[in-house]
Amino acid sequence: MLASPLFLMGLSILAYSLFPLMGALGIRSMPPLLFIGFAHVVSFVTFVLLVRVRSRGGQNIRLVLQELRTNADLRLYILLDAALNLASHSLLFYAFLFVSRTNATVIFEIWPLFGMIGTSILLRDHFDTLSQRSFVLGLVAMLGLALVVWAGQAYDADPQVASEPWRGALSAMGSAVAMAISVALHVKSRLIVGNIKGITDAAIVVNIPTKACSSAFFVLLLLVFQPWERIASVGTEFWIYVVLTGAFVVSTGSAAYSEALARSKRSEIILFWYLTPLIAVFWLWLFGLDQISETLVLGGLFILSANLLLHVKADEGPAYVAVFLSLCVAGTIVHLIPSVPIRDYFPNSSLVELLSLPLGIFGILTGFVLGRQFSRRQELETVLVDVAPTLDAAGVEALEDILAEPRQYRLDRMFAALLKRLRPEQADLRKGLLTLRVKLSRPVSHGELIVLWALSLMGCVSVVFFRAKGFAGDIVTFITVPALVYLAMLISTGAGAGLGETLRRIVAPSAPTMRSRVWDRRVAGLTIVVVFLTQIVLAFERDGLTNVFLGR
User: Fold this and answer.
1) Mean pLDDT across the chain, nearest whole number?
2) What is the pLDDT of residues 367-404, one digit of tens each?
């Protein structure tokens, strides 16, 4: 349990959620660079003490130093990690001087999406390949962050804050980019150190040279600018925040984070980091530095639910993820933008009259296409039953890749490679595979898809912006938009979607039952229901019928 990636990531999130609070309190009497610089020095001392008190600590340091002398890549990774980490933290605290602490924190916290991409590229041999589903859910989490930013715009009483919002926003964005690169480099260094023969406590040991470099950079800056009078003027309170930040936030957060990624095979675990700003805002609120509102609650719900859906596999297809995304986007628009009277644009029409014809066409066309897809699906399963038992293990694996390929232009090449492996006497198998290729062609034309998506888009936009005022109009929106998107996505999915599991059941009927997805489906379904109900409650809240959330 204590060594699981999720536990370690949770510990890191808890530690770093205190970072904005420590910074907001600490920079009251000291420039941001001095605060974070001293915190990194404290972190370096903390890691050295941790290694010294543990068994084989001296040997671990000698092994790392020996590797640094011979491994130029490790030296480069550690130097860049140290410089970028120090720069990232300094830019974040610098942004606090120009924009709301909440805004700066949340802009900074978009870095996990960049970090997920960076680590998957730099560590492609360690992490699984990212899926489109991961990107979509990452975007939903970013939408939640945008709502948190919106919620925090008006809650800073400091007259100096937000005096130069562009400078603060650019500083926070630079902090996010620097942190994403730093994280990728740090995990790379952790994996190199972990592979050293005889090394122990790699997660702690690798932080010694990293924090030593960042501390050296900071000391060099002190020698250049010499702010000795400013340092001598600060009180005990400042040093307490420095020690807490360095010894707990930076040290615990850094070690737990790198260890979580080193133990995990999925870089998507980084997206759990989107929980950090929510907890950070809670600490700021607890100390009277910020407030919690319904918009913040909605953004937090999106972040939590996106992470939850990311780690369950209720459905391999994109349809339910599209439903979740459409529900979140529609809910955001409904929450932030009031409805527009339709008679301002169509004086002699109502919403029902406007949508009756296009949605009627959409329903008829959808019925025909789904009937065609259902028939094609039955034909594909029949061909699979005939073909799959006659393939060898390599052929079954190749066919499974073919069924999982959504792009039609690649299917011919994949089928050609599979047919080339057949022997001349396998004429029946060749005929079956050719039949399968024909059946895998898209059962819906591009013209039909364009019409369906155009009608779906028209329906969604009309229902969202011309909805009736009040919670009743919101309920209609939350039901209609996901339904239209789901049908359009279901029709757009390739003919072979989901047939991989059918193939496995055919070729290995006596194999142990695959892990049931019933629980995953329940979790995914419950998550979407909770998002739906929360948005309905927010509609009641807006109309004054309830008072559930804080900030009213």
Assistant:
1) 77
2) 888 888 888 888 888 888 888 888 887 887 888 787 77
Estimate the crossing angle of helix 207-225 against helix 72-95, to 10 degrees.
60
Question: What DSSP assignment string belongs to 438-462?
Answer: HHTS-SS-HHHHHHHHHHHHHHHHH
Tell me what pLDDT residue 71 has: 87
Question: Nearest to residue 443, comparing CAs of 369, 378, 368, 365?
Answer: 369
Q: Which of 271, 75, 107 is nearest to 185 (CA)?
A: 75
Q: How far is CA 483 from the centre of its chain?
A: 24
Nearest to 13 by CA among 307, 241, 296: 307
Question: Would you state the structure tokens that stand for residue 19, as one six-digit string?
Answer: 């970072």
Which 3 state secondary structure label does DSSP give 310? helix
**Identity of the highest mean pLDDT range in 42-51, 410-419, 458-467:** 458-467
HSE-CB at 257 with a 13 A cutoff on CA atoms is: 32
pLDDT over 80 (residue 272) = no
- What is the sign of the dihedral through the CA atoms of 365, 371, 372 and 374? positive
Alpha helix stretches (DSSP H) within 96-164: 101-108, 111-122, 132-151
Residue 532, CA distances (Å) to 19, 453, 489, 551 in order:
33, 23, 20, 21
**From CA 375, how far away is CA 380, in angstroms rounded?**
9
Mean pLDDT computed over 340-363: 85
- The DSSP H or E segment spanning 75 is helix 72-95
Residue 321 tokens read as 């993820």
How far apart, in Å, do the first and last CA atoms of the chain sit?
40
List the structure tokens of 150.
Answer: 């919106």
| Residue corresponding to tokens 């009078």 | 229
Amino acid present at 34: L
How buried is 126 (Cβ within 10 angstroms: 0-12 exposed, 13-18 middle, 19+ buried)? middle
